[in-house]
Design goal:
By secondary structure, this protein is mainly α. It has one helix at residues 3-83. It is rod-shaped, with a radius of gyration of 36 Å.
Length: 84
């Protein structure tokens, strides 16, 4: 066998081994991608839950502000009646 043919056969064998190794790595990839996708989806769900909770807290704060404003107005009106 000529040396060039032997080198070519060795190279092809090496390429095949490399392709098999890379394919094995690639076959593990879907599990990693699936797990990452699940984690991302879970994080988005948590973010939306927190957003809803923040909206509720904003509404409660606005309600407390209104109660405080009404209370201050009533207190001011009582003071004005006492002065009059």
């Amino acid at each position: 066998m000529e040396p060039e043919v032997k080198i070519f056969i060795d190279n092809v064998d090496s390429w095949i081994k490399q392709i098999r190794r890379e394919f094995t790595d690639f076959s593990d990839l879907p599990n990693v991608v699936s797990e990452s996708t699940d984690n991302i989806q879970h994080n988005y769900e948590l973010i939306y839950e927190l957003k809803d909770e923040m909206d509720e807290l904003k509404q409660e704060i606005n309600a407390l502000k209104l109660i405080q404003i009404i209370s201050l107005k009533k207190g001011r009106d009582l003071q004005q009646k006492k002065i009059s």
